[in-house]
């Protein structure tokens, strides 16, 4: 009898130990996931950039537009279909380079498609979709400036946008200069370009597509020149909460469909090779072979 009770006790202990182990093995994001929250409230909280022309920016009438924003809207429609909803609302939330990771991690936004670079370091804080754009880090100067490349930036004032990979790169390059530049960190791309226009900086370092976007907004775009060999290449992707695999699968499938159907290439032509609002300026930034390859073979790999 004693032996029976002892054996039974061991069995009970083993059962509870296995049950506890199984519970601990369940991923923390299993309940509730982003898709569950979206289904429950019937709304997607979508982060957007205020001045990242031509990716995500606001027109004078308050409308959010752009190449990346078009991807975001396509993803929202894919989410609606995946969840079997007749209607899915969108709540637009403005973000900055400095607060975007906090907003994703805290659940204030479900998805952000703008000009966010996907690199391995950032995978500690968020997950990233398939890449929708590849940019190179260059600089913008006045057309008559003697500056041609990054080696010419010694002992001058250089502006960039705070909280970006371009700022990190610029500071690393600056440490290698015999005469370091004076680096100014602006709150957003618009403020950085204002500093350049006002003469508070000699060069504006940022991803080339964003520089072309700021140049297009200038009163006289011909006064500004994008120059320098790219010092790095950046993979832009939509950002979502870390380790939410079910949500990421829906997002990636939507982007892949847009790319392979030809829709992504049409969006590129619209935002990079044609006149865009609000001033009807053409960025004249043709589709590269790198982008053509990306459209044929979508992937979610960072470039670093």
From TrEMBL:
* Entry keywords, A to Z: Signal, Transport
Gene3D superfamilies to which the protein is assigned, alphabetical: Periplasmic binding protein-like II (3.40.190.10)
Highest taxon listed in the record's lineage: Bacteria
Q: Which SMART domains match?
A: PBPb (SM00062)
Q: Which residues form the Solute-binding protein family 3/N-terminal domain?
A: 43-275
Q: Which terms does the UniProt entry file under GO BP?
A: amino acid transport
Write down any Gene Ontology CC term: outer membrane-bounded periplasmic space
Renumbered to this chain, the signal peptide range is 1-30
The record's annotation in Pfam families points to: SBP_bac_3
Q: Which InterPro entries match?
A: Bact_solute-bind_prot3, Solute-binding_3/MltF_N
* Sequence intervals crossing the membrane: none
**What family does the database annotate?**
Belongs to the bacterial solute-binding protein 3 family.
Q: What is this protein called?
A: Amino acid ABC transporter substrate-binding protein
């Amino acid at each position: 009898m004693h032996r029976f009770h002892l054996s039974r006790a061991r069995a009970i202990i083993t059962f509870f130990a296995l049950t506890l182990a199984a519970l601990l093995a369940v991923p923390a994001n299993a309940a509730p996931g982003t898709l569950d929250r979206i289904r429950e409230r019937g709304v997607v909280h979508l982060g957007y950039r205020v001045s990242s022309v031509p990716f995500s920016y606001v027109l004078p009438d308050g409308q959010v537009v752009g190449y990346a924003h078009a991807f975001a809207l396509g993803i929202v429609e894919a989410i609606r279909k995946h969840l079997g909803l007749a209607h899915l609302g969108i709540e637009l939330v403005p973000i900055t380079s400095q607060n975007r990771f906090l907003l994703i991690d805290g659940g204030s936004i479900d998805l952000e498609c703008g000009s966010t670079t996907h690199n391995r370091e950032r995978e500690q804080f968020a997950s990233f979709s398939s890449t929708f754009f590849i940019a190179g880090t260059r600089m913008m100067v006045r057309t008559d400036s003697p500056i041609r490349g990054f080696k010419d930036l010694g002992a001058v004032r250089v502006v960039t946008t705070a909280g970006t990979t371009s700022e990190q790169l610029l500071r690393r390059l600056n440490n290698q200069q015999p005469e370091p530049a004076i680096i100014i960190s602006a709150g957003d791309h618009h403020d950085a370009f204002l500093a350049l226009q006002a003469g508070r900086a000699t060069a504006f370092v940022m991803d080339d597509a964003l520089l072309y976007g700021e140049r297009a907004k200038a009163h006289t775009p011909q006064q500004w020149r994008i120059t320098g060999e790219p010092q790095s290449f950046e993979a832009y992707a939509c950002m979502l909460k870390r380790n939410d695999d079910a949500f990421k699968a829906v997002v990636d499938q939507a982007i892949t469909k847009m790319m392979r159907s030809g829709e992504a290439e049409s969006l590129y032509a619209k935002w990079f090779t044609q006149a865009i609002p609000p001033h009807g300026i053409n960025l004249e930034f043709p589709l590269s072979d790198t982008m053509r390859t990306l459209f044929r073979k979508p992937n979610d790999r960072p470039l670093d």
